Amino acid sequence: MHNFVTIVVLKRNGIEIVILKATIRLTPKSYQMKLEFFKNIQFTKLIKAEGRLREFNFRNHLSPVNKDICSINVTDDRGNRIIFEMQKQESGWKITQSKLPMWIMENENNFQEVIEEELK
Questions:
Q1: Considering the entire predicted model, what is its pTM?
Q2: Residue 77 sits in which domain range?
Q3: Which of 8, 37, 41, 102 is exposed most, by the fewest CB atoms within 10 A?
């Protein structure tokens, strides 16, 4: 690496002005960087739950860390967003949380079908 510094002193109306110029030159060096791209699948499906159609938003992170997890969110009748996850197991996609409204738990098989269909 080469550094060059130049100092210029100017006097104007009795005031000394110092200008510092620096030039830095880097020698070429090769750097290797590992880039990994992971597919992020997002989709929305209308599913009938508790007697009406509700919009369920699905997000599947296809990365080594979260490869078998699908995040799902939906709003309830009051407009509150309910967020939960499903995890892929040997028997299929299963809801991981237990404290969810019954109308969500009853649709676990529907969610599983939708996820499998979208990931084909």
A1: 0.65
A2: 39-118
A3: 37
